[in-house]
Amino acid sequence: MNEFAPLSGLIGGAMLGAAASALVLLSGRVAGISGIVAGTFRARGIELGWRAAFVLGLVLGPLVVAFVGGAPVVVRVPASATGLVLAGLLVGFGARLGGGCTSGHGVCGISRLSPRSLMATAVFIVAGMAVVFVVRHVLGLPTWP
Fold first, then answer.
1. Do 98 and 124 meet the contact criterion of CB atoms below 8 Å apart?
2. 76 vs 18, 48, 79, CA distance in Å?
3. Domain range for residue 132?
4. Is 88 helix (H, G, I), strand (E, B) or coil?
5. Burial of 30 (0-12, 13-18, 19+ CB in 10 A)
6. pLDDT tens digit string along 116-140?
């Protein structure tokens, strides 16, 4: 998926912003994926219900898009299973170390002008840029098509 689609991005961003705003306004909860997923495993009652619905929506969303759009959503990841597991563990470690993930800090924290979230998001971006530079230009590994 290399095509530039500003309208799709605008609509998706508006939907994400509306959903995050609704969650914080209606329940006082921040839409941080790592916190929602982690909380699902220890939640009970109504707390479990909304968390499970949120996670289920993340999983079922692409299937609904494929069904409505009439074409399957194809995801190609040019990495080994070991690489994916290692990447997932590193992301989880980083989310715990940073006290939240990019969705919690980047989407919700910045909109609330949280200094902690502003700093965390800046660190996420700089770290991502450094990793891409090292992978592409220092190690010379192949990049995503």
1. yes
2. 29, 32, 9
3. 77-145
4. helix
5. buried
6. 989 988 988 998 899 889 988 998 8
pTM across the whole model: 0.71
Query: Hey, CA dihedral for 68, 77, 32, 131, is it positive or negative?
Result: negative
> 56 to each of 23, 69, 70, 103, 142, how far by Cα in Å?
16, 20, 21, 17, 33
Q: What is the mean pLDDT of the chain?
A: 85
Domain count, the chain: 1
In b/e form, how buried is each residue of 75-104, taking b as 16+ CB within 10 angstroms?
A: eeeeeeeeeeeeeeeeeeebbeebebbbbb
Burial of 109 (0-12, 13-18, 19+ CB in 10 A): buried
Q: Give the separation between CA 40 and CA 50, rounded to whole angstroms.
A: 9
* 73: alpha, beta or left? (left if phi > 0; alpha if psi -120 to 50): beta
Work out the burial of residue 121: count CB atoms within 10 Å of its CB; fewer than 13 is exposed, 13-18 middle, 19 or more buried: buried
Task: Enumerate residues 6+ apart whose C-beta is below 8 A from 118.
Answer: 109, 110
Does 140 reside within a domain? yes
Inside any domain, residue 37: no
